[in-house]
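Budget justification note: compute hours in this period were largely spent on complex prediction jobs such as the one shown. Inputs:
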Amino acid sequence: MSEALLGFGDALHPLNVAFIVLGVLMGYVIGVLPGLNRPAALAIAVPLSYYMTPLSAVAFLIGIAKASGAGGATTAILINTPGEPNATVTCLDGYPMAKAGKAVKALKVALYGSVIGDVVGTLALIMIAKPLADFALRIGPIEMTAIMLFALTLIAALAGNSLQRGLAAGIFGILLATVGLDIESGTPRLTFGQVELLDGIPLLAVTVGMLALSEMIIQAEDVLAHRGDQIASVPKEGDSSFNWREFLHVLPTFVRSSLIGTGIGILPGLGPTVASFASYAAAKRLARPGEEFGKGEIKGVAAAETADNAVVPASFIPLFALGLPGSVSAAILIAALMIHGVVPGPRMFAEHERLVSGIYGTMLITAAVMLVVGRVGLVGFAQLTRVPATVIIPVVTVLCLVGAYLESHSFFAVELTIGFAVLGYLMHRFDYSRVTFLIGFVIGPQFELSLRQSIIISGGDFTVLGKHPIALAIVAIALGAGLYFLRSGRERAS
Amino acid sequence: MSGDSRPPELRSRSSVLAELLCLTGLALVAFVWIIPLQVSGGGLGLDPGFLPRLCAGAIGLLVLADGLQRLLRGQPVEVYPAGWSALARVGGLAVLGAVVLEFAGIAAAALVTIPVGMLILGERRPILIAATTALVAGLLFLFQR
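Corresponding output:
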């Protein structure tokens, strides 16, 4: 208990709070800037956290992750341009509200919804992660292998358009994670004689290359196609108030959407886009007479933004409890934690109890900072849409190269980053999910360890599964889910 | 949110077939040649090449299944809307940045890469180019020190 209290005390340290404020400010800026999204921003920010303490690094990155989601609503509401797919739903009612002179009201609803969703998701993380981790410590490698197979199937099916392509991408990630010294025999594998690869492919080179640098190539396509930037402006006149009566009117939507977002966030692979759509659909289904969704309904903005922001903290539940990243943000957080010698997973609660409590405290403080920064900069952040993509792309490209170099002061890491950027672009172009690849790469070492232990325990006999009902049930669910997604994919195509 | 209502252009069967052959071929080459060549037997515990071979085999089968499904069922595959120019420009820019970084350091990389990048992406406002370059290079110089 004292460790937990000390952890919360660490979260309140002025330096830590300063990094939260910096992260939230950067997150809002990134959310509004055209061409930058949450994963890319996190990937670039990880190298900046080298020189911070583990808690400050996590505080900084969590500030970026949470605020970029909230900031993304600005362009969706003001210029009908979602910065990320999950903000698409916000456009449906946010933009009509802006056209009706209620832009500031929509921005306020989006902000309050983001903060409420974030707090509910964080409280769920605090309540669920520890008991789930205790359970995870009692299960064996056969169950762990089954859980990872299930998670990969779910992510593969939901992150892309085809289950087969998604699985191929995830397994490719696992294949590249085997590069380096074999964990059991110490034999070099797939290193092609490169000494730098004996420790494996650096996670940072993969995340920065795959998510940030390849994203700049994709954004450059829009620039070269002259799909010009729109500039947002907040009208000075109109209905900008959001009073208590309206708050109480929207409160049930805030609560319902927080729970939907949290539930979806816990499941690996579903992510904020699914949460926004599901929450919006639920709000629309429960609409009262006179509430016209799609035409500027305040509850539509609330539903989308609340669920979107509940996903981020909830997606850390499988990460902290099982070591499984449920989202790209969680996968990048693994990179940041590992740089500081912390391996996410069930043992983290025993080995780094103070840090875990500090992270929880940090996440709650981040919600409060988001509210203050978001409220103060509500109108000002919109001006950032004036920064052209022709400025952002070269600057981010340089930051990617510098970030990759700083990890090990090695040019080999820079070369790898460029290589992974090209690979990431090709995967995007040919519809192989980069998200699934990255998650496969992150869980690869743990998957191999569990698989090896399972094979040794079972002696290679698959019938042993019969003696492990939990593993058997998870494998059956994974197979069922796989068949379901295959069928629904075929129906969609036909 | 764009108002483009033209139907998307579809990829030809030969291009889908070429992608299928290329990726399945790569997986096969990895399975039978690269992995055995790059992974020697460990002697202790499970064969170190077991998981890499399992992965390569699984990728080959999944890509084959996906390609055949597309070809035999005639599932339409949309043509990617952009050409290769963005990859060439930003990829080239990254290589230039890496070379300058290696020989002249972090700040110099920004000093060269940012104006070149802005120019190749069509930016023509000299003050904006100079200001952006000076700001980022200056910050990186201070960071380096």
